[in-house]
Amino acid sequence: MIRVNAEIELDEREIQEDFVRASGPGGQNVNKVSSAVQLRFDVAHSPSLPQPVRDRLLVLAGRRVTQDGVLIIEAERYRSQRRNRDDALERLLALIREACEVETPRRPTRPTLASQKRRLEGKQRRGETKKLRTLKPGSES
């Protein structure tokens, strides 16, 4: 079991890892070894996640989720397969932890009377400044 937080634990069998060849630095090693990791996690059908967390995770993951609700994380940052596996898993856990946080709704507030007065006074001063720039009839520039 992989511990996400105090309430959520993932079963290792829910996570599928595929190893592919990575692009980028690594010399001939890149052409020989499948060091990049494609981690797949079925968000839509995971029994480990509560429904509200599942819904937020699908929204957070965005384009990384397939139409079937499978989250795909690709990790090819490192040259070793082990570090890429750890990186992909850590990114998945971070995404789930972020989905666990419930966003508090914003309560709209009204501007204070003093701030409204400051705003109107500023507009008044600006208008007077602009009024001074107008050319008076009969005077030459």
UniProtKB/TrEMBL annotation:
Ranges for region Disordered: 104-141
Q: Which GO terms describe its molecular function?
A: peptidyl-tRNA hydrolase activity; ribosome binding; translation release factor activity
Question: Bias category Basic and acidic residues: which stretches?
Answer: 118-131
Residue ranges of domain Prokaryotic-type class I peptide chain release factors in the record: 21-37
Q: What InterPro entries does UniProt report for this protein, alphabetically?
A: Pep_chain_release_fac_I (IPR000352)
One Gene Ontology term of the biological-process aspect is: rescue of stalled ribosome
One of this protein's Pfam families, by short name?
RF-1
Q: What is this protein called?
A: Prokaryotic-type class I peptide chain release factors domain-containing protein
From the broadest rank down, the organism's phylogenetic lineage runs: Bacteria, Pseudomonadati, Pseudomonadota, Betaproteobacteria, Nitrosomonadales
